């Protein structure tokens, strides 16, 4: 048995879309799966060299969780080659791709025949919210709500660039969660929600400039988390005249600027030169999510 599983990365929150809006991006985690005598995870990419290579690997842990959920015992052992171009702990959904990979691995090995809705439900229950797992599973922009079940809408996105600006330090989600307030007043909640509502409408109408305006007004997470990213306000001001808007990707520390394809072509080289200590990565939305293929040849 030979399988290839490919999952796109994601960005989430998009300012006021906290824990509910995510976009799939064209960076990928890919697994090549072959039946074996023991479980072994082989990192192929540099960014994965420190991952666990046995059953303590996150992908296996998720697959085992799914197996137990469906009352299965041991998973048949496999050799899994893992390749990724998704930076770890940078706010680009690396853990969500591992979650989707683990669910699909169990689905294949145990012949569970899970539907897309089944996979989304399992992934969201594991993650606690759908913002990264939903787009990685289904592609495009997914706006979701989770309360025992997941309600969601997928919006295809094209003809705009999401420019990831990646620093050389990590920011753990736990640290980024710790700076958020415990509660809002009723008046604050209404105000913050109105910003989020307009943000969703702007995405659906592809009104990127309005979305950028709403992202800057966000009250849910950016005012608190950008303090953990020392260069945030400087870079936001530097790019402001040329891009539709800038936001903190997921929990950070990656920033993403939304810009026209023409602007990226014209300006990217000078931006890279001005801030050469960052990685500048122009990305497109991946409108196809999880891809799982059975191969008839060995590798």
Automatic annotation (TrEMBL):
Q: Which GO terms describe its molecular function?
A: ATP binding; homoserine kinase activity
Q: Using the UniProt record, name the top-level EC class of this enzyme in a single word.
A: transferase
- Would the keyword Phosphoprotein be found if you checked this record's keyword annotation? no
Q: Does the keyword Nucleotide-binding apply?
A: yes
The annotated pathway is:
Amino-acid biosynthesis; L-threonine biosynthesis; L-threonine from L-aspartate: step 4/5
What residues bind ATP, as annotated?
Answer: 87-97
Subcellular localization, as worded in the UniProt entry: Cytoplasm
**What biological function has been recorded for the protein in this entry?**
Catalyzes the ATP-dependent phosphorylation of L-homoserine to L-homoserine phosphate.
Official protein name in the record: Homoserine kinase
What is the species of this protein? Aquibacillus salsiterrae
GN (gene name): thrB
């Amino acid at each position: 048995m030979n399988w290839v599983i490919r999952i796109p990365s994601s960005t989430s929150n998009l300012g006021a879309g906290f824990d509910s809006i995510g976009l799939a991006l064209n960076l990928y985690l890919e697994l090549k799966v072959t039946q074996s005598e023991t479980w072994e995870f082989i990192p192929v990419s540099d960014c994965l060299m420190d991952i666990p290579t046995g059953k303590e690997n996150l992908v296996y842990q998720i697959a085992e969780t799914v197996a137990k959920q469906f009352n299965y015992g041991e998973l048949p052992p496999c050799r899994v080659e893992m390749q990724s171009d998704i930076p770890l702990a940078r706010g680009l959904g690396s853990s969500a791709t591992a979650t989707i990979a683990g669910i699909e691995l169990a689905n294949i090995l145990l012949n569970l025949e899970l539907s897309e809705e089944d996979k989304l439900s399992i992934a969201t229950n594991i993650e606690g919210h759908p913002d990264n797992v939903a787009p990685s599973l289904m592609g495009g922009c997914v706006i979701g709500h989770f309360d025992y079940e997941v309600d969601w809408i997928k919006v295809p996105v094209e003809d705009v660039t999401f420019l990831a600006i990646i620093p050389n330090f990590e920011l753990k989600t736990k640290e980024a969660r710790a700076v958020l307030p415990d509660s809002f007043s009723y008046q604050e909640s209404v105000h913050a929600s109105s910003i989020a509502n307009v943000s969703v409408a702007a995405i659906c109408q592809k009104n990127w400039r309005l979305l950028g305006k709403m992202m800057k007004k966000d009250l849910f997470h950016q005012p608190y988390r950008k303090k953990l990213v020392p260069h945030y306000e400087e870079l936001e001001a530097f790019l402001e005249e040329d891009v539709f808007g800038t936001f903190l990707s997921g929990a950070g520390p990656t920033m993403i600027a939304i810009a026209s394809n023409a602007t990226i072509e014209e300006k990217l080289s000078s931006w890279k030169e001005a801030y050469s200590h960052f990685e500048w990565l122009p990305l497109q939305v991946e409108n196809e999510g999880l891809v799982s293929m059975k191969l008839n040849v060995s590798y």
